[in-house]
């Protein structure tokens, strides 16, 4: 007889319910985990209430990624075993067409194949007591290494923000000794781009219009803050370009620029300033969520031989690299867990996550 579990089921905009539903079963190429901790992004409430109109096949169990313990493996799964502590990534790809991908339990994709994938077997996310993931999304964690570094399983939930940032860093080949612009720098994901860039040995020039936020961010990084050069932006393209360049070695410009602009940033000037502050052959990664068009200094991009690359989330290797860096002690987790809520307190948890957006705070569901 199938066992039941508690889960947060989204039936439509503004209709999130805690329900008893059947516990998932592990089929070929999949595992089931008991969810220990599932992070809440600060804008999840906007997806639930329909403000962000993401394609979703209702009803579905909401939620993206988690840290958990494997309870069941599929018949063809041999390396992953029950009892293992794992991090489960949220980008699910169609195995016979890997260019097609969805965000599990959160965004059902754009193409017919993606929407078919998200409306059938890979429909449900992890805001539940148990969740099913494809084996390629499951990363085994070295509990001994984490313990030696003083890292709890709950802290590994920060990977939710770190892995897309690692995807941005890897997509434009940032290496040790380079100087990277992160503008804006104090958001949930952009601050993780700073963490990822520092972990691979780069120096960061961090830009924001808020001096107070920049000062607090640099202080929060402790000794690593010495490799962060804060720049307060004014909104004037050329003044900001000059300030960003002045913060780079010898004032020669940055090697790379990572942009995590939010949706409302289309009319701002920092993207143009960031591109102008790159040295010749510089690289830029657009990893934010601006929907509208933005101005690009075409002649400068051409004359300076700049590369602009888009990066949606992360590849499997990006997640694996982030895990290895954490376990080796080369990447320091930076977000503070301010609350661990049971599923029953979902309204309070979503409200707190929305109010706590930014670089420092992390809110979790802890169903167990």
TrEMBL record:
What keywords sit in the KW lines? Oxidoreductase
MF terms (GO), sorted A to Z: oxidoreductase activity
What's the superkingdom here? Eukaryota
Q: Which residues form a coiled coil?
A: none
Q: Where is the Alcohol dehydrogenase-like N-terminal domain?
A: 27-142
Is Oxidoreductase given among the entry's keywords?
A: yes
Supply the name of the protein. Alcohol dehydrogenase-like N-terminal domain-containing protein
């Amino acid at each position: 007889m199938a066992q039941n579990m508690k889960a947060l089921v989204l039936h439509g905009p503004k209709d999130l319910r805690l329900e008893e539903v059947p516990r998932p079963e592990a089929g070929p190429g999949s595992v089931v985990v008991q969810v220990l901790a599932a992070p809440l992004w600060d804008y999840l409430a906007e997806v639930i209430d329909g403000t962000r109109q993401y394609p979703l096949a209702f009803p579905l169990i909401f939620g993206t990624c988690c840290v958990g313990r494997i309870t069941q493996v599929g018949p063809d799964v041999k390396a992953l075993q029950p009892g293992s502590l794992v991090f489960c990534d949220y980008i699910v790809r169609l195995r016979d067409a890997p260019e097609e991908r969805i965000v599990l339990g959160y965004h059902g994709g754009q193409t017919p194949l993606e929407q078919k994938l998200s409306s059938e077997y890979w429909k449900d996310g992890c805001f539940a007591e148990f969740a099913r993931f494809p084996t390629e999304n499951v990363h085994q964690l070295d509990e001994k290494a984490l313990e030696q570094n003083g890292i709890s399983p709950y802290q590994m939930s920060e990977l939710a923000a770190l892995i897309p940032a690692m995807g941005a860093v890897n997509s434009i080949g940032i290496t040790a000794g380079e100087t990277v612009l992160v503008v804006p720098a104090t958001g949930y994901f952009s601050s993780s781009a700073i963490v990822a860039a520092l972990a691979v040995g780069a120096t960061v020039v961090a830009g924001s219009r808020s001096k107070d936020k920049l000062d607090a961010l640099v202080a929060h990084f402790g000794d690593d803050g010495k490799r962060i050069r804060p720049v307060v932006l004014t909104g004037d393209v050329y003044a900001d370009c000059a300030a960003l360049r002045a913060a780079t070695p010898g004032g020669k410009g940055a090697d790379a620029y990572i942009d995590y602009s939010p949706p409302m940033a289309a009319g701002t000037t920092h993207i143009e300033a960031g591109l102008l502050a790159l040295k010749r052959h510089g690289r830029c990664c657009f990893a934010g969520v601006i929907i509208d068009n933005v101005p690009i200094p075409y002649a400068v991009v051409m004359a300076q031989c700049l590369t602009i690359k888009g990066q949606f989330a992360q590849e499997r290797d990006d997640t694996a690299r982030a895990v290895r860096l954490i376990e080796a002690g080369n990447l320091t987790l930076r977000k503070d867990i301010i609350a661990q809520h049971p599923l029953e307190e979902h309204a309070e948890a979503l409200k707190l996550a929305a109010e706590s957006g930014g670089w420092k705070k992390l809110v979790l569901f802890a169903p167990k």
